[in-house]
Amino acid sequence: MEHPENNEAYKGLTVNQGVEQPSIVNPYLKLRKKPKRRQYTAAEYVEGIVKGDVTMLSQAVTLVESVKPEHQALAQEVIEKCLPYSGNSIRIGISGVPGAGKSTSIDVFGLHVLEETGGKLAVLAIDPSSERSKGSILGDKTRMEKLSVHPKSFIRPSPSAGSLGGVARKTRETIILCEAAGFDKIFVETVGVGQSETAVHSMVDFFLLIQLAGTGDELQGIKRGIMEMADGIVINKADGNNIEKAKLAATHFRNALHLFPAPESGWTPQVLTYSGFYNIGIKEIWDMIYAYIDFVRKNGYFERRRNEQAKYWMYETINEHLRDSFYQNPQIASLLPLQEREVLEGKSTSFSAARKLLELYFAGLK
Ligand code: GDP
Questions:
Q1: Section 256-273 average pLDDT
Q2: How far is the CA of 31 from the centre of ligand 1 (A)?
Q3: Which residue in 45, 201, 221, 285 has the fewest CB atoms around it within 10 Å?
Q4: Ligand 1, residues 94, 104, 142, 235: which to mutate, most atoms within 8 A of Cβ?
Q5: pLDDT at position 139, please?
Q6: Domain boundaries defined on the chain
Q7: 3 class by beta-carbon count within 10 Å (0-12 exposed, 13-18 middle, 19+ buried)
Q8: CATH topology (fold) of 39-84
Q9: Is residue 125 very low, low, confident or very high in pLDDT (cuts 50, 70, 90)?
């Protein structure tokens, strides 16, 4: 067709028909599609995990953390099959306020136990704040410089989605997978701000509380319940001109512990000072932990505590599923805001609103 600019009305250049050019893309180049990762079967996951394949382990943990129902179903199958291979580890909870020196300490603790006892170490975390901050700082690899490159360690940050109960359950399930993969030492890290300690305490054999010597009133800031949970309290940063202060704090803690009833384990919690940064007093902490494990293995408390924990997690899992099933029910989800408003405006009492919703939910189940 004649180009419009060749019209007589145009006085400019004549535009010729173009010449077809070959494509600049090599026609023989086969575009390789990114291979979609095949979904492994539960048996394949288990086989990989039991062989100690860390990539398989990581992928299985990702399944555990997934909120998709099909992933959850597969994850549960993998966990179930890994159970017979699990349990052969010592599980240690490590808690402390931000800045107490958890990551510095976990790095040196980890290297110490790996050097002293061989084996493999997994570092997991429970961070209740991670839901809000979208991503967890706990268990972050960059915070544990040496461990993160150690061939015998596996570091996994806190699962980030869901309620504390949900996050804690996922960590508990991850422990099982790690144990099946041959990790015989498990650290579970958490921040010392309250409820998350209870969750960690309910999945470990030894609960270690990291404290700092402060202004002399360090005991006031710490909740009684948290101190009661501790099997050992360690005062960090006992170095330089902080040594005396740390010793004094240790004395305060020791005195305070005397006021509590004797723990069920029969073990008297110890208080030690150390410096994670300068690597002072680390061996003493681990001697204490091993002494505790020996002690409770002999008196039967080790088994008893684990059995109690298994029972606790059965109920926690039931509670979590019931709660999810209720709140995710579409009818409930759509009615909830209305009921909430009625309660806020005083048009309905909290009890009658709750009853109405629950009745509706249970009627839907029939
Ligand atoms: P986290 O928030 O509990 O994980 O604490 P970090 O391990 O990140 O430590 C917080 C700060 O305390 C960092 O600046 C560390 O260098 C410092 N720190 C940790 N351990 C020690 C210690 O033993 N002595 C001294 N002086 N500083 C330490």
A1: 90
A2: 50
A3: 221
A4: 104
A5: 53
A6: 39-84, 86-299, 329-365
A7: exposed
A8: 1.20.5
A9: confident
**Dihedral sign computed on CA atoms, order 228, 231, 236, 239:** positive
CATH superfamily of 86-299: P-loop containing nucleotide triphosphate hydrolases (3.40.50.300)
Residue with the smallest CA separation from ligand 1 atom 24 is 237
Distance 99 CA to ligand 1 centre (A): 6
Kindly give the number of the ligand 1 atom that is closest to the alpha carbon of 210.
Answer: 3
pLDDT higher than 70, residue 13? no
Q: Which residues line ligand 1 (CB under 6 A)?
A: 96, 98-104, 236-237, 239, 275-278
Which residues, 6 or more positions from 57, have their beta carbon under 8 angstroms from its beta carbon?
48, 49, 154, 177, 178, 181
Ligand 1 centroid distance, CA of 150 (Å): 20
Whether 100 contacts 210, CB under 8 Å: yes
State the pLDDT confidence band at 226, using cuts at 50, 70 and 90. Answer: confident
